[in-house]
Amino acid sequence: MPRAARRIAMFPLLGTRRFGPLFGVQFLGAFNDNLFRFGLLFLVTYRMLADSPEQAAQLVSVASGLFILPFVLFSGLAGQVADAVDKARAIRIIKFAEILIMAAGGIAIWLGSIPFMLAVLFAMGLQSTFFGPIKYAIVPQHLEGREITAGTALIEAGTYVAILSGQMAGGLVTPMMLMIGIMLVSCAGYVAALAVPSAPPAEAGGRVQANILASSWSVLQRVAQSRHLMLAALCGSWFWMIGIIFTSLFVPLVKNTLHASEGVANLFVAAFSIGVALGSLLVGRLQRGRVGAGPLAPALIVMAAASVDLYFAVNAFGGGDAELLMRPMDFLARGGGVRILLDLTLFAIAGGAFIVPTYAILMAYSEPAARAQTIAGYNIMNSAAMVVGALGAGALLSAGLGVSAVLLWTGLANLPVIGLALWLRRALPPREVV
């Protein structure tokens, strides 16, 4: 077969009705989640509780927990519901619910009620929980086999660009702009949802367990009953664990080690998000329609190498005046600043190249009638992995290990995971691709 014939056109998928509207829905949803969350963060920190920094910090932690909590509690139920109904219809219902939730969010901002804001944030996390399994499970119903990896790459890249854009916009808008913005974006998401083609359940009469503990256990069993799906889920959860460690340590690394301003921390977040997006697109292009675990081991090696060089780059950089924090341009102009940023970007690019194949494997190899449940079980594992990562990093820091050393050992921990990636590659059964 000619080389050009094997190449799957990735970006033209955005212009098709079978993928373009879905991409728009998930992009706008991720953007709105972060616009609202970070808008509230800045509103509370810089306006409502400006004179109470400790209370503001506590509230930020509570808000983050409330947004993640629905993913832990309701992912199982969300997966079962998604497999039992037409996924396009479910998307429209979820996006209409988002309009109502954002209307409530606007009222909460107008009233200046922090408890109301937190309740809305929990509701936003709940609707995201129900949308999560659908946005991946619907892909194999609308894309051909050789398009799955390309579609997954676009979704991952779009998600990270949307997250970054939402976070940046949330820090720039006024309360009134935030109220208007979240409503406009949610309405645009609903309009895009109307164009998503029908995706009926693979089997009629799918079981839905109202008991959230039973449904969570059921979807976890869906993942565990297949060796290759379990291995893919473990690999993916590994990335989310190390990802939360890296991103959560950006601020202390920048402020306390590098003695740089919050602008430099934002630069790190941007580099990481853009890096994951680039890595997602790169692996989508290199795979040329193949669904497999081939990119995982090389990506792990690159992440380990980048973390080692990051450690030495940070130590060589030293740090500026602790009282006069460096601005972004000063940081980049100083020797070693660009090297640190490039290491972070390289780590993130490898991370994007690592996570896309795991999602593609989960979608391509899961049973069509239980695909959303497989993704839901994976989401539960991701949430648990992120909690373990956050607690583990905190424990290492409490034990006296420096921030750069924690990042070093986190990066080096990728090397043993190469064995897991190679095991997954051998475990994948032959698959017919159309």
UniProtKB/TrEMBL annotation:
Main location: membrane
Keyword tags: Cell membrane, Membrane, Transmembrane, Transmembrane helix, Transport
Superkingdom, natural source: Bacteria
Protein name: Major facilitator superfamily MFS_1
Topological relation to the membrane, as annotated: Multi-pass membrane protein
InterPro entries: MFS, MFS_dom, MFS_trans_sf
Location within or outside the cell: Cell membrane
Keyword Phosphoprotein tagged: no
Organism: Pacificimonas flava
Transmembrane residue ranges: 21-44, 56-78, 99-126, 176-197, 229-251, 263-284, 296-318, 338-365, 377-397, 403-424
Molecular-function GO terms, alphabetical: transmembrane transporter activity
Annotated Major facilitator superfamily (MFS) profile domain residues: 229-434
